Amino acid sequence: MSATDRLNTIKGHLSGNYPQGLLAGEVAIITGSGQGIGKSCAELFAREGASVVVTDIDVEKSNQVAADINAAGLKAISIPGNILDADFAENLIEGTVKAFGKINHIVNNAGFTFDAMLHKTTDKQWEMMLAVHNTAPFKIIRAAAKYLRQKDGANKSIVNISSTSGLHGNVGQANYATAKAGIVGLTKTIAKEWGGFGVRANTVAFGWVDTRLTRAKETGAAIEVDGQKVALGIPTGNKSGARVNPFADIPLGRSGNADEVAGSVMMMCSPLSSYISGHTLEVTGGRGI
User: Fold this and answer.
1) Where is 258: in which H helix or E strand?
2) Where are the alpha helices (DSSP H) in 48-207?
3) What pLDDT shows up at residue 261?
4) Are 150 and 139 in contact (CB under 8 A)?
5) What is the DSSP string of 184-241?
6) What are the protein's UniProt keywords (predicted)?
7) Which residues of the chain are modeled with pLDDT < 70?
8) CB count in 10 Å sphere of residue 73
9) Which H or E run includes 42?
10) What is the model's pLDDT at position 83?
11) What pLDDT score does 32 carry?
């Protein structure tokens, strides 16, 4: 697709001449899409015309999201699995190509927190965050190289999900912050190495979005990885009894929700972002400005 063709495509989308969606005819893989932001992304991508590959460690949730998308008259398949498994990346990529014949977009969204103060962080806590947020995305992208590194003029992109913890650090998250900073470096390298093949690579760094990672830890949300239960959420114990506004430093005065922030990910994959690569988009409600 020439630059003129891309411009005409964008103009068509903006003028409403492409009712089938911004991603019509394209194929998108979204990890961690059984719930939360990943689920919202899967649903939005499908509504914008993409054939979506839903994948999550929770088999039942992964299958349900795909089933709901198909029930709505859209297209999706489920390839559930644990991103830490040695054969996961290859199975995911080859399963996608077998089902849809190609890959246009990869959204590396799967992840979780394993918090502790730095001096109390164990080797396992440290290594697991790097494995989940750095090694797993790297393996998925590497497995897709033979399909993406082609000068075919297609709209192709990789979006890796980061966090403001990775950009600014965060108390109790030395492991998570390091991993989320690392994914930014990986993304910029992909942008430089694969740009010649028309592949754009960007990072979306979320601030406070209402998910199980930001809700009260006392609610008991947890994930089981390698036989270990990892508690999720933010401790809310306050010995002083004083009420604290958690959104005081967010200009919009609230947290984001999964459906609205999914739009930022879809935007980075769409033709509207055809000349954006190597960028980190902060989606924070203005926090940190």
Assistant:
1) helix 258-269
2) 59-71, 88-100, 123-130, 136-148, 164-168, 174-194
3) 94
4) no
5) HHHHHHHHHHHGGGTEEEEEEEE-SB-STTTSBGGG--EEEETTEEEE-SB----TT-
6) NADP, Oxidoreductase
7) 1-19, 212-231, 233-243
8) 7
9) helix 36-47
10) 97
11) 97
Task: Confirm whether 275 is a catalytic residue.
Answer: no
Cα(20)–Cα(25) distance, rounded to whole angstroms? 9
The span from the CA of 243 to the CA of 224, in Å, is 32
Question: The tokens 């849809």 sit on which residue?
Answer: 100
What pLDDT, on a 0 to 100 scale, did the predictor assign at position 235? 54
The one-letter code for the residue type at 22 is: L
Return the residue matching tokens 């959204």: 107
Phi, psi (deg, nearest 5) at residue 25: 80, 5
Q: Which is nearest to 146 in space by CA: 185, 107, 89?
A: 89
Residues 6+ apart with CB under 8 A from 25: 49
Using the Cα atoms of residue 47, residue 264, residue 24 and residue 89 in order, give the sign of their dihedral.
negative
Q: Which residue is listed with tokens 């005409």? A: 8
Amino acid identity, position 111: G
Q: Measured between alpha carbons, how far is 235 from 250 in angstroms, rounded to an integer?
A: 19
Distance CA 130, CA 180 (A): 9
| Given 18, 147, 176, 275, the catalytic residue | 176
The continuous run of DSSP H or E covering 105 comes out as: strand 105-108
* Nearest CA-CA partner of 49 in 73, 77, 26: 26
Distance CA 186, CA 202 (A): 10
What φ, ψ does residue 22 adopt, rounded to 5°? -65, -25
> In this structure, how many other beta carbons lie within 10 angstroms of the beta carbon of residue 24?
13
Q: What are the structure tokens assigned to 59, written together?
A: 């088999």
* Start-to-end CA span in the chain (Å): 37
Report residue 18 as tokens: 């492409």
